[in-house]
Amino acid sequence: MKILHRLLVKAFLGPFVLTFLIVLFVLVMQFLWVYIDDLVGKGLEWYIIAEVLFYASASFVPLALPLAILLASIMTFGNLGEFYELTAIKSSGISLWRFMRPLTVLIVLFSIGAFYFSNTVLPVSRLKFGSLLYDIQQKKPALSIKEGIFYTDIDNYAIRIESKSEDNRFIRNVLIYDHTSGRGNVQVVTAEKGEMYQSSDERYLTLKLYNGYSYEEMPVKQAENGRKPQMRTKFREQLVHFDLSALKMQRTDEELFKDYYSMLNVSQLGHAIDSLETDFKFRSKELNSFMSNYYQFKKDTTFWQQQGIAGRDKTTGGLLARLEPQMQQSVLQDAINNTQALQGFSGMKMRELGAKRNMLNRHYLELHRKFALSFACLVLFLIGAPLGAIIRRGGLGLPMLFCILFFLIYHVITMTSEKLARDSHLDPSIALWISSFVLLPIGLFLIYKANSDSRLFDAAPYRNFFNRFFRLSAKTAAV
Fold it and tell me: What CA–CA distance (Å, rounded) separates 277 from 284?
């Protein structure tokens, strides 16, 4: 049996590694498709792009791992069934459940590793990925001055050139608006031609201009006769320097992102949930105490007796009838104003409590996600292994079809229950477990059918059943 166990594990690891890398590659390509506009055209170094892809791939492991286990298990047992190796194993007296035992132990180890990865590696990778992606999104595009278009990405400057050479060095008909004084377009430089080049560290841009003019409106307290003094300077050659440090990517301190719920481990999530729960209960109690000062709820008849009010005065109309008409209008208007103010205040507080409840739900979901992922790996293996033994097909054809079907069921249930939990329509403590609890009975049923050599996906038994059913129905109708 030890040799058989070793061969089974070897047969599983090959498809598992292959499918895991393929799924991870597809997810990374999807990420690139979504964020391609943030990465292209900003002059990013190759190692920055490689770093963000590395951290992104680490974030996709929780999604790729269950899918890889499901597909690899279907392929492994499908190959064994297609070449009648499972038949030979069962004929020697070894049941399918006993034959699955070494892989079950291996998947349990994978599940433990998945929890360790989600609790230790994933928060760090998400922190670095989130901060790096934020810095990339905030970075301005790389220096690219196009012909006939004002370039305004350099702070306080607008540059326009009519034409430039193919090597982007020589330029003609240059127009520069200088806004560094903060007084608008009061400084303008024009030139017939010039040269454009950057410093060796690409921190400064230098324009060497020839045959031009520099115009500047002089600041005055009050213009005389509607006229403003202007200084015009003619030059044959002039150097204009621009600081490009604002175009460089500035790294944000990662400490600013570390308290986000997806970047916390189990212990940190526990402390955050305790704090959020305490704050939510305090603010709810505070709102109830505030509203109770303005509204009386569920008052019985003894309340009116204590107030010394006669039976006919228990209604609002009876109380108002005791006042003069002008006073009645004043009281009603004050009541309307107070009610509207309280309605606006309570609505604002309820929205605030809703936002806090939503954040608390997200923390609960992230806490249970770390455990639910490990359990899902085991459940999907319990589906994939007997399913492969039943369909008896290897490769990527039919196994891929069943893999996509069951993974879609798992993913749709997970996403739906997670959304309901975020909106407080479902308990977040059970939301991420629903998909596993739905698929677990299916996996146990498939194990039972595969162990008894059931022809679950063979069309002949179903066709014979319906033929017998229709023949019986025809005989009953004839009688």
Answer: 11
Q: Are 288 and 350 in contact (CB under 8 A)?
A: no
Neighbours of 191 (CB within 10 A): 24
Domains: count for the chain: 2
d(CA 387, CA 73): 9
Contact 449, 386 (CB under 8 A): yes
What are the pLDDT digits (tens) for 112-126? 999 999 999 999 888
Domain boundary pick from 247, 263, 291: 247
Q: Domain check: are 347 and 322 in the same one?
A: yes
Q: Are 215 and 264 within one domain?
A: no
Q: Verify that 304 and 229 share a domain, yes or no.
A: no
DSSP, residue by residue, 21-38: HHHHHHHHHHHHHHHHHH
The end-to-end CA distance of the chain, in Å, is: 60
Per-residue model confidence (pLDDT) at position 117: 92
State whether 125 and 237 are in the same domain.
Answer: no
Judge if 374 and 226 occupy the same domain: no
Q: Is residue 221 part of a domain?
A: yes
R_g of the chain computed on alpha carbons: 36
Give the list of residues 6+ apart from residue 217 with CB closer than 8 angstroms, or none.
183, 186, 187, 228, 229, 230
Domain that holds residue 217: 157-247
Residue numbers of the chain with a pLDDT score lower than 70: 1, 41-43, 138-143, 220-228, 245-250, 293-320, 454-466, 469-470, 473-479
Q: Does 466 map to a domain? A: no
Alpha-carbon distance of 453 to 103, in angstroms, equals 20
| 470 vs 89: CA distance, rounded Å | 39
Classify strands 187-198 and 170-178 as parallel, antiparallel or unpaired: antiparallel
Give the Cα separation of 92 and 216 in Å (integer).
98
CB atoms within 10 A of CB 194: 24
**Whole-number Å distance between alpha carbons of 117 and 111:** 10
Using a 10 angstrom Cβ sphere, with 0-12 exposed, 13-18 middle and 19 or more buried, the burial of residue 68 is buried
Whether residues 195 and 228 share a domain: the answer is: yes
Beta bridge partners of 206: 197, 241
- Asked whether residue 433 falls in the same domain as residue 294, the answer is yes
Within a domain: 151: no
What span, in angstroms and rounded, lies between the C-alpha atoms of 110 and 115?
9
103: CB partners within 8 A, 6+ apart: 8, 9, 12, 73, 76, 381, 385
**Domain membership flag for residue 474:** no
Rounded Cα gap, residues 356 and 278, in angstroms: 11
pTM of the predicted model as reported, rounded to 2 decimal places? 0.71
Pair 403, 340 in one domain: yes
